[in-house]
Write a structure and sequence with these properties.
The chain contains 16 helices and 31 strands. It has 805 residues and is α+β, with helices and mostly antiparallel strands. The chain binds zinc ion.
Length: 805
């Protein structure tokens, strides 16, 4: 475990670093450099209020939860200033505090706030006190050792031993380093940076090719170390980042889940846990940009193609599967069970931003913009105080935002991501100024030797007209590169996973000083090279007709359906805006007509789209009928779930056969359904969608997780007296990685008068997986049925479907 490095060398190195830190731009190694958010002042009605809300609401409540859940107290206990056991659930809970400090540091640069800064100083002091003398920082183990107890089962018996699996020691540190650099750049204070350096020196001492060879089970330290390298100039940190990447795939206990199944340079597909994945790909891009590593570039290029061409949702969300919180097989993109973790969207934005900075190709910003305005932004509500962890594309009301989560990665990621958004708008080289995203703002940008003021005026994303005023300090020649989004060039998304159903006539237009300008579009950017004078104006007009999008036919889930897009936004139908609050059974026209309008009274002001649709209903004989045409209203996807739980959908069937009809009036559907865990997904047991197996997540199901080893029940109170003789139940069982199995046994009771009686089955009741469990019994007249279920000793259980005949 030890490297032969004297402590004196470490001290000397730290002292040299102390004098050579730079607070300047942090991405200078990239050929195309992002203009930092600190150089961009937002003046718009879209992002500026959200950044303000993040400062005033999200960051304070996130710190509040860190206090109330014991995340902060963990540092005090580790420091010996307080007593008790480790207060929280997971050993990675330290990372939330770091991420929110990072977000608060960004936010301070837009909203100077002495009170917040003072609070950060107290937190940083606590973190420093919790750090062990040799630099080790991981409150779970430090607390356990103080108490003479074993640490968390994920932590492993000794430092680092389990890091390639679940200890998250290096994961915490990656977020610590990002926070330390952010706080230093925001305030000039070295306190947290020095804690990072002490920690990174220990990691560098303990791990490496000539020491303990391992890698983080959850990536992020790679990006953190590169930031630490950039700010300190200490090349050991860069080398360490590369070591952690290159060590993957060299041990025999690697897993696809953590992208350690192969060497990173041999990976060609996006697999495993999607947050881990995008953080790793981002780290590879960082290292590749500095070391000009072709093997890394080849790998992340292939991975990007796999991800965008085969595994991304139309919202930009990634990671279809909840079981591994990650990628599923190509084209397997279910909508209601779509995982699309908020963190994965943010990670994918990091990845695409870095690829753009390497290659200058607009396709990366096409993905970034799609994710930003849809799959990522849906992660936080309008008030800034409720969050989504998964961001599904369809709901029957079972999805609602939460104020916080036991695993709180998503809110803390939102807190640090939102204030940094202005940093994506511009990029620069010595001769090019790139306008990547559109929002009203003013910016000061160094282009070569010239300082250029830029003003954007626009009502994007609601309208597509953008006015750009260029104010160079002195007249000079450079190229203004203006992104022409793929959606304005008849490309729904790079690649062919999603395409517009019809090609569009409308063309974007560019003017310079009010005269039409015919610019060449290269790699998605219109190039305008000229001698720029102060006050020069560029006009960009991007028509925003409402358009229908179809998926590659291999995406079975979207067969016979349209997604509806206007500008960069995907739209959805949500319950409050539509007839009877029902949207899941809608069928729209094959060539729908749309109107759109801005509604200032709705959801803080939003564009809405209107079209007509019919409701599909299943009849008792199994046939499907369509009702009369009704007008429906669509809102931007990112705005859903601001008005409580209910139905929502992004993909709209235009074929009857793809519809999700309203259930037929069966005994079960007409009953009042209650359960020992009461929630909306109870309704799914009578929705009349037959699963193809017990682990089929295509349709919603009801479960009793995390309960186990006890009796649970579902009760149906019939609408009126029924003569019944048969019950069919289909169990939910989410397999070896899930928490649900078929139950040990079950029994069926019926209600006769005021009492519950056991049915008299014609054959013994047996539990079967992946099939209907049919119970035939002596006919009885009943006003209700109760299914009583004994859960396995170690697992919960659930029910897909319940039929009474
Ligand atoms: Zn998350």
């Amino acid at each position: 475990m030890k490297k032969s490095k004297g402590i004196l060398t470490l001290v000397a190195a730290t002292m040299i670093i102390a004098s050579s830190c730079t607070r300047g731009s942090s991405d200078e190694n990239y050929p195309i450099r992002p203009v930092p958010f600190t150089a961009v002042k937002m003046t718009d009605n879209f992002w500026a209020p959200r950044i303000q809300k993040n400062h005033e609401v999200t960051i304070p409540i996130a710190f509040g939860y860190c206090e109330s859940t014991g995340r902060v107290k963990n540092f005090d206990i580790a420091a010996g200033r307080d007593t008790g056991k480790f207060q929280t659930i997971y050993p990675f809970d330290d990372s939330d505090v770091y991420k929110i400090i990072e977000g608060a540091s960004y936010s301070l640069q837009t909203y100077p706030d002495l009170q917040l800064e003072a609070y950060l100083d107290t937190l940083i002091e606590k973190i420093g006190a919790a750090q062990e003398p040799d630099g080790y920082l991981y409150t779970n183990r430090t607390i356990a050792e103080k108490r003479g107890e074993a640490p968390h089962e994920w932590a492993g018996p000794v430092r680092w031993a389990e890091d390639n699996h679940l200890s998250h020691e290096l994961y915490n540190l990656g977020h610590l380093y990002e926070a330390g650099v952010a706080y230093y750049q925001a305030t000039g204070k070295r306190t947290l940076l020095d804690i990072c350096i002490k920690s990174a020196d220990l990691v560098d001492h303990d791990m490496g090719w000539d020491a303990f060879v391992t890698y983080p089970g959850h990536q992020v330290i790679e990006m953190g170390l590169v930031k630490l390298y950039r700010v300190t100039g200490e090349k050991r940190y860069l080398d360490l980042a590369k070591f952690f990447l290159d060590a993957r795939g060299t041990r025999d206990d690697g897993e696809e889940y953590s992208q350690s199944h192969k060497k990173v340079i041999d990976q060609t597909e996006a697999v495993g846990h999607s947050v881990r994945a995008t953080y790793m790909y981002s780290g590879m891009a960082d290292v590749a940009s500095i070391l000009e590593d072709e093997a890394y570039l080849n790998a992340i290029t292939k991975i990007w193609e796999d991800l965008v061409y085969r595994k991304m949702y139309i919202t930009g969300g990634i990671g279809a599967s909840g079981g591994n919180e990650g990628f599923a097989e190509p084209y397997n993109l279910p909508n209601m069970s779509a995982y699309c973790e908020t963190c994965a969207s943010i990670g994918d934005i990091f990845f695409n931003h870095r690829l753009f900075s390497l290659h200058g190709d607009g396709k990366y910003f096409d993905v970034l913009e799609k994710t930003l305005y849809n799959g990522a932004l849906s992660g936080v509500n309008l008030a800034g105080d409720r969050f989504f962890y998964p961001n599904p594309l369809e709901s029957n009301g079972q999805h609602e935002r939460s104020a916080w989560f036991g695993c709180a990665c998503c809110p803390s990621n939102v807190a640090r991501f939102i204030p940094a958004i202005p940093g994506y708008i511009y990029s620069v080289t010595d001769k090019d100024l790139y306008v990547n995203l559109f929002a009203s703002n003013t910016a000061d940008i160094q282009v070569g030797k010239n300082k250029v003021g830029i003003t954007q005026e626009t009502n994007y994303p609601w309208e597509g007209d953008v006015k750009i005023t260029v104010n160079p300090e002195k007249s000079g020649k450079f190229t203004l590169q203006i992104r022409i989004p793929g959606w304005a060039r008849n490309e729904a998304i790079p690649g062919a996973l999603y395409t517009f159903a019809q090609q569009d006539e409308g063309k974007y237009a560019i003017s310079v000083n009010s005269e039409e300008y015919s610019a060449e579009v290269i790699n998605g950017y219109a190039e305008i090279t000229r001698k720029w004078n102060s006050g020069d104006q560029v006009g960009l007009s991007l028509p925003m007709p409402v358009r229908t999008v179809v998926a590659d036919e291999r995406v079975k889930e979207d067969d016979g359906k349209y997604a509806i897009q206007r500008g960069p936004l995907m739209f959805c139908a949500e319950w409050p805006d539509n007839p009877e609050g029902q949207v899941l059974n809608l069928v729209i026209d094959e060539t729908p007509e749309f109107t759109s309008e801005f509604r200032s009274d709705l959801l803080n002001g939003t564009e809405v789209i209107k079209t007509r649709a019919r409701q599909a209903e299943r009849n008792l004989d199994g046939t499907i009928s369509l009702g009369d045409y009704e007008n429906i209203t669509l809102i931007p996807y990112f705005l859903w779930a601001n008005r409580g739980g209910g139905e929502m959908r992004v993909w709209f069937p235009y074929k009857e056969t793809s519809a999700r009809p309203k259930p037929a009036p069966t005994i079960a559907y007409m009953s009042k359904i209650t359960g020992s865990i009461q929630n909306r997904s109870l309704l799914s047991v009578a929705d009349q969608f037959e699963p193809s197996n017990s682990n089929d997540r295509t349709w919603p199901y009801y479960h009793w997780w995390p309960n186990k080893d006890k009796w649970e029940w579902i009760q149906l109170d019939f609408k009126d007296l029924q003569k019944i003789s048969r019950l069919k139940v289909y169990w939910f069982d989410d397999g070896p990685f899930g928490g649900c199995r078929v139950p040990d046994k079950f029994e069926v009771l019926y209600k006769s008068g005021n009492s519950w009686k056991k049915i008299e089955p014609l054959a013994p009741l047996a539990v079967v997986k992946d099939a209907w469990n049919v119970v035939e019994f002596k006919p009885v007249s009943a006003t209700g049925v109760q299914l009583r279920v004994k859960l396995n000793k170690d697992f919960a259980s659930g029910v897909h479907e319940l039929v009474i005949e």
